[in-house]
Amino acid sequence: MQRRQDWLRxxxxxxxxxxxPFVGAITLDTDPTIAAHYIRETFxxxxxxxxxxxxxxxxxxxxxxxxxxxxxxVVINGVVGNNTHQPLxxxxxxxxxxxxxxxxxxxINGTDAKSAQMFTLAHELVHICIGKxxxxxxPDFEPGPDRVELFCxxxxxxxxxxxxxxxxxxxxxxxxxxxFKALAKIFKVSxxxxxxxxxxxxxxxxxxxxxxxxxxxxxxxxxxxPAGGDFYRTQEKRIGWRFGLAxxxxxxxxxxxxxxxxxxxxxxxxxxxxYAEGLGVKMP
Length: 284
Prior knowledge:
By secondary structure, the chain is of the alpha+beta class. It has helices spanning 2-14, 32-42, 56-70, 114-130, 147-160, 163-173, 179-187, 191-200, 206-223, 231-239, 241-252, 258-265, 269-278; strands spanning 73-77, 79-80, 83-87, 95-98, 105-109, 134-136. Strand 4 (95-98) and strand 5 (105-109) form a beta hairpin. The longest helix is centred in the C-terminal third of the chain and has 18 residues, at 206-223.
């Protein structure tokens, strides 16, 4: 990921691209509510944006695309490169961020439950907006004592479920047999994120929160399936749309040797050409 970021930074500088204005735009002293509002505005998370998505999985895709359209490389992969025999361990990390003024990069561990990936992405967006690298773990969604991580967690939660909206919806949701799932449907986030927000707002007990987390994540991991299916979709996530587009365009224009493009993407020959065509770049 560092090698990819280094190449993309150099490429963008040659293209005379301006630094991204949101990198380092907020600080740890920024009020979390104000910081969350800035992030929602920057990445197009408008009021009522959840209504645009049928499911929270769709909302995750939408947020990823918004981040990449803004200039962030977002990679979701559960293995080392394309080696399915080398899965990444979710107990080691959920994701990490490499902040950069021109080519910020977010990596999300694809072996993690999808319910956790939305929060990871939001958390890493906060990291970029304060201009700090970081490795994200958050066992049981419990932040550590580090000031940066505490801030990023608080802002990410506010981005996904604003406090005022949570207060409006909780009274009705709390009367249902599955209140966290009810909130998840409203905000198009995972039930895990909804449960975390209810816990932080002191609407539910610590015991109820952790019992739900344990049960829900065990259920999701049981029904998770290895990535597969459509080749282009898989590679788009593993390589990142923004990065892949830059590499394929540079190779087509003769500004990047094919062997270097193969090395950067982990794809070669006709497989690389097939990937490029999926991005809309017809190779010669």
